[in-house]
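User: Can you write out an input/output pair for a complex, sequences first and structure second?

Assistant: Here is one pair. Inputs:
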Amino acid sequence: MKVSSMTARTLDTFARMSIGRAFASGIGMVAGGFLILLVLVAIFAPWIAPFDYAAQNLMNANAPPGWPHLLGTDEFGRDVLSRVIFGARTSLSVSATAIAISMAAGMTLGAAAGYFGGVFERAVMTVVDLTWSFPDILIALIFVAIIGPGLTSTTFAIAIAYLAQFTRLTRAQIVRLKRETFIEATINLGAKPSHILLRHLMPNAIAPVIVVGMLAIGDGIVLEATLGFFGLGAQPPTPSWGAMMSSGTAQLFLSPWVIIFPGVAVAVTVIAVNLFGDELIRALDIRDRLRGA
Amino acid sequence: MPNLLEVRDLSKRFTSAGGPFRKARSMHAVNGVSFDLPEGRVIGVVGESGCGKSTLARLILRLIEPSSGTVAFDGDDLLAKSPSQMRKLRARMQMVFQDPYSAIDPRYTLTRAVAEPFEVQGVKPARPMAEEVAELLEMVGLNPGLASSYPHQISGGQKQRVGIARALALRPSLLVLDEPTASLDVSVQAQIIGLLEDLRTELGLTYLFISHDLSLVKYFCDEILVMYLGRVVEALPDTAAPARHPYTRTLMESTFEPDPKKRRLIAPLEGEVPSPFDLPPGCAFADRCPQASALCRTETPALSSETGHAVACHHPL
Amino acid sequence: MLSVRDLGVAFGAVEPLSGVSFSVDKGETIGIVGESGSGKSLTAMSVMGLLPLIGGRITGGRIVFDGQDLTSLPERAYRKLRGGRIGLITQNPMTSLDPLQKIGPQVDDVARLHLGMNANEARARTEEILGTLRIPEPALICDRYPHQMSGGMKQRIVIAMALAADPDVLIADEPTTALDVTVQAQIIRLLDDLVKQRDLALVLITHDMSVVAQTCDKVVVMYAGRAVEYGPVETIFDRPRHPYTQALIACIPRGLDDTARLTGIEGTVPTVINYPKGCPFHPRCTRAEAICATDPPDFSVEGDSAAACHFAEVADAQSA
């Protein structure tokens, strides 16, 4: 009785929080639910996956979906389902890490540029815009050339690719907020710049940045898959959705399941991220603030 | 009474850089303003939009850096202060802003908003913070039960009261009121004005009251400065003084009385306030002035006072 | 010319306007005065037939213009009236002006559309009207864009557009609120002259009692979506009988003529979602009694004026 009322209250608080409100609609519920499930799958992959993702069985290569290999096996006889499950780990962790780095750097640069303005702002924005003008693949190639192929290159490439977006968005928020009366009022109370920035500007600027970050994780997954597909990302035997699809192209007609299932995983995940992101924008009521950044 | 504020020749010039397709422009938002504000008095600054009254308020509080001139607060030259000295000093000179709707951080509860001045200045109130906040809210006529509300949950008039509570938290001696009631309904405006009057006597405050509303300024203030295009054109020593500057007279005649029996057949002033950019020499009002002579178009009249009633006009009324 | 009887408006379940009545004749100015959320602008939109546009509908009462009931008028017929025989002036001139079009063609369009004039006739009319509005060099102004003009000048252009179709009724919704006092005085004087010269019926919607006192013949005082008092302007200012009207007048600073302290009205202006039951003013009223919280008061009529207050007679006795 007591426990259930407490659970009810917790759920109620969650529902009233803006992020909770994104789950309120049907689409938000399904997309958000899927993403939570996917994260759980990635975390508990070793316990969920029916087989070892690296265990080869050349006798049973290219087996069609059935029992015991629900999604079939690849050209080395590895279980596709297990590899897709472990691939979720790679995709999500690389994309989320990259976006987290990018957001942290972008928010710092954007906030500083927006707050201090002047030559500093112009210098930061020029450099940042420059990174935006390079194709993502090219940035990845540069990193591969410097530190060699692998997940570290992929992570940095994705982080750089999204840096401009976070910097510009944060800067736009800060510039807009700086004109609000409450900022002038707080300056007039005798507040230091650090107080203005950390207690007023950043907390008010953060919501749209988080939403864009959420959406960028979806794009990051695609970029990670693309790099993996070209062999610039995860190296064998680490399972990655992109690399799996790449190896599947050779047997496209012989054993299509090898390419189809990781492809479906990428597509469904990205769609879920975007749908949930849209719900989040609606729930936080920030559509206007995302424009023009 | 000693002067709490001495403003001398205060000016602010804004310039916009030129480029290949436009020429550089400059405007004197505030031009050579001087006045004294004795402790305990209320001086009103009145003028139409663009006359520089809000910029003047910000120059005095050094929220904008002046181009030239001096401001002495309680005998201290404000413009000589370092940023950290200035931050300390701000506790004694506060401002109430025109737009109460954006004057409080939307993410702050009233408690946090009213406690912020103490946090910012590193001052610990004598009482526990919750009591101090409740006391301040009561002082401005707000129910302390509202303390945990967010700004969007209260009305415009209540927000302005919160703004006043924040400004008074550190017990300042000077309060600059920048159109504090301009965005409020009349019935609420009267409440806020009444509150400010009470607080003034209760706390011994000195006010600089900025407004576009001459009848409100006449009601609320002891002395009135009339501004036109960045300059003080007349300083009325008391609210009963007749206008000596033609612009002040126009302003007085354009202000409607709330009495249908006192309908005036005003001959309205033709023309409008000219662009403040690159003003020609001479009196800025000359083009609209019925009294203007050739002298008015060549020489800017200085604010001069023989009788304690200063006016900047070659042909005062 | 225009009479509104017991008008009620609803948006879904909320009823932001009820029991509003007034009438205005040619050559007459009526002021509809109230604070924010009193329903004064909504009254204007109802008369203009613009409610469907914002999702509202008329739930009761009649709007009679020149003997014709407008509440049942189809949209097509309304379009002829709107901007034609009934002109509208809004608070922000930029809501009526196209920023991408020159002034001349914008004003011409009105006469071409409503009076069937050709381009040359329309332009001649435009220049003539601009002239009567004391706009210097009308031909030059016609060739300008809205952004090249000051706020006061833009408001004059909007007035010119309202006049171009030779209307019988002009509805001015806070026409001077965004303007400086000296410009406000010019515009108010202009509207005053137009009412006399063109025999217009002017409905002036404002929050400013001083503007009402200076220009109107009759007044309707609105509060929380209801008319609380109406009557000739002298009566309303000399012997207001509704406590709200009395308090509203006491809120205006009078400079030197009256050194009495401004009191204000306790409490806050109610918004549509929390309109009080009974008399809408009772939570802020100093004279309220139990009945005020439960029963909406009827109008107590006296001569040309009436106040919706349970204790209007008491107020009479006091002021007498």
